[in-house]
Structure formats: C-alpha cells, structure tokens
Amino acid sequence: MRTQVGIIGAGPSGLVLSHLLYLHGIDSVILEARSQAYVEARMRAGVLDSDVSALFREIGVGERMMKEGLPQEQMEIRFLGKRRFINWRELAGGRVNMVYGQQEVVKDFIHRRQQDNGKLFFEAQALRIRDLDGRPVIEYIHEGQEKELKCDLIAACDGYHGIGRQTIPADKLEAYELNYSFAWLGIVAQAKPSSKWLVTSAHERGYAMHSMRSPSISRNYLQIPLTDTVDDWSDERIWQELQTRLETNADWKLEEGKILEKTRFDIRSFVCHTMQYKKMFLAGDAAHMVPPTGGRGLNQAIADVCILADGIAEYFRKSSIEYLESYTQLCLQRVWHAQQFTWKMTSVLQRLDWDNKNAYHRQVQLAQLEYLTSNRAAATSLAECYAGTPLQTSFLPADRPRYPQIC
Ligand code: APR
Ligand code: PHB
After folding, report:
1. Which of the residues 25, 90, 112, 259 has an alpha carbon 20 to 30 A from that of 181?
2. Residues with Cβ within 6 A of ligand 1?
3. pTM of the model
C-alpha cells in the first residue's frame, strides 16, 4: 500500500491530523493497533479549549459536540472547606471551555473519516519503521499478515509507548521527564453531576476532582498513593473519600450512584525535544505528556497536529520544507508553556507529601491557593492558562480574538 502520509495511531492526534490533511487534499493512511470498539470506549480526559471546539466546528466535526458538550465558564477550587471560583469568560477574554469526553471526539473523527472513505485500519499494528532518509516504510501486521505501507512522510501519533519515538537513535533523542510519587484513580459513575462546572479540591488527604460527561454521568478523580491498585478502592471507599475531600462549608452535596468504571493511571510530565527525525514527526502523547491537573493533554495534541497539517500541506503544495522544518520549534514553545502551567497547578493542588513529612509544603500551598483565588492578576493568569493558548492553524481566522500579550 502507498500513501503520502503514513499515520501510526487512531487517538485524537492521528485522527484529527488525517482529517485536516484530507481537507488540504492530502492522502493519508492510519494504522491503529487496537480495535475500533476499544478506541471508541477508552475513557480519558475531556476538556476542550474554546479554540479547539471552534476548530472542530469549523472543520465539520462539531455537530454532536455542540449538542452534547457541556460548556464551562468557570471552575471551582476548594481548600479548607472554602469555595473559590475562577471564571474564564470574565478573566480570559470571553473564552468558554467545553466538557466533551475524549472518546466522543475519537468516535466523531472516526465516523467522519469513514464517511469520507478515509483509509483507517484497526487491529493493524506498526512493527518497524525504516528508510526514513529516502522513501519511508512502515512495516505492520494486519489480518495475520506482515505488510508494508510506503509513504512520503510519517506521523507517529502512537502515544507515550509508541514505536515512533523508539525508532529515533538514543544519541539523537533529547527528552525531559518527571515522574510523580502518586497516581490517579479515574471514576465514572451513573450519577447526576453535582455541579455545572468542574470542582477541584486541594484537600489535606489528597486531591479530588468532580467533573461530568452528561446530565446523568459524573466523572471523578482521586489522587492516590503510587502503590495503590484499583482493588484497594471499593465503591464504598471511593464515595467516602470523594465526600471527604470535596466537603465544603456551604450547602453542597455530592450525588452518588452506581460506579461504572474505575481506572488507575500513573502521572507523568514528559517532553521529547526531538519531535522530528528525518521524515518522521511525533505528535501528541508520543512527544509530550502532562498530568491531567491543568486539562492540557488533549488540547496540546490538537495544537501539534494543526501545525503539522499546515506544514505538510506546504511541503506537498509548494515543495517547500520551510514551515515543516519549524514544526519542532513552534510546538515546543507551546508545549513548555503547558508544562509550566501544569507543574504549577500540580504543585498547588496535589498532595506532595504522602508521609506527611513536609507540612511546610502544605502551608505554602494554602498561601498560593489563597493568592491565586483572591488576587485578580493571579486569577487572570490562571484563567488564561487554563483557557489555553490559541491554536496556530490555517483552519481558523487569523483575526479571531486572542488574549493580550505584552510582547
Ligand atoms: N501501531 C499502531 N497503533 C499504535 C501503535 C502501533 N505500534 N502503538 C500505539 N498505537 C496507538 C494506540 O493504540 C492508541 O490508540 O496509538 C494511539 C495513540 O493514541 P493516544 O494515546 O490517545 O495519543 P494521542 O492521539 O496523542 O492523544 C493524546 O490522549 O492520553 C491522552 O491526555 C492525553 O488527551 C491526550 C491524548
Ligand atoms: C475530565 O473531565 O476528565 C477532566 C477535566 C479537567 C481536567 C482533567 C480531566 O483537568
């Protein structure tokens, strides 16, 4: 099989890239190791920046999101039982985030690609990448047979454990990683959301978040010790802990319900500076990851593929490599901005001292929370970062409103 762009992975990065390339008139093939049912059901994060939801509307994949997505004008931060609000409509130039599950984004883009006769192969696992200097080839296995996909360029949208990054020789790879001493438990429950906006709580027992997926489904998170497994968390213990950590002085009650899913996941900050290696480009989780605290992961992935799609279009249309060669530099500036914000949110909201040896950190955290949620300049900075950096893309009008820069 032959195509212009071989894409590994049908997560948000690979799917959105393939659709943007289609709109640019460029042929691509997606190879996805898992089944369609598996990727459509995989529960992940779910907050879209206003620019990302605007992009989805603009490129014709926003219809269901506009009906079912839950717009968010603000978030709530709780500590010591206090309720504080960060309103981005007010503080971040009228921007509104949208809660819309990542698996819904994935479903919408898969269906759109299939409607457009896009070449999308499930249960097709990329095994090796070769000839990156000349005519790149992805060797893969599909329907029990080893096959080859010949391409002009490769986009490795294959997540943190993917083979794209592993193909880069160690002496050419520059990467930065920070692992944390805790994990998260993600919980989906058949329970009416108890709030119209996201509620986060920096409790002394650990972080908790109350989010939502629909008017009848809530999505909650608990920070847990690294050594804990899902089996350590019975349904009863989960509700008890959420109630404790989300407790507030005001009249608020967390609705409980049947737990439909609980997943434990590690938290990691990671940036690979080698986002291009010869004719291969890394995008999304393959290149960088953040803890979910700042709602940046999915939005960063979309930001990468916007830049990549425009670069690839210029490469084929004008036979110019210039924009494509600046891919890494354009992405990394945004990526580190998201890393610094997430790092700040993580240290301000999460419990970093499970053995309670560092009570000093807790006191600094409380002072930071007080300042961030009561000082207008500090709250504006938080709101701007949470609302997200505007996308760099030819698919949105260049003259759309942006938040003010001082230089
Ligand atoms: N061959 C084919 N497919 C592969 C291979 C392989 N060798 N290795 C990995 N994949 C597939 C995975 O099965 C997965 O579906 O690549 C896909 C990568 O998708 P994601 O992990 O969702 O990564 P990405 O598309 O970059 O999306 C980033 O996901 O983890 C969240 O918070 C993160 O929201 C962010 C988003
Ligand atoms: C979610 O709804 O899953 C969610 C929301 C905000 C975050 C992380 C996850 O920062």
Report:
1. 259
2. 8-14, 31-34, 39, 44-45, 102, 125-126, 157-159, 162-163, 284-285, 297-298, 301
3. 0.96
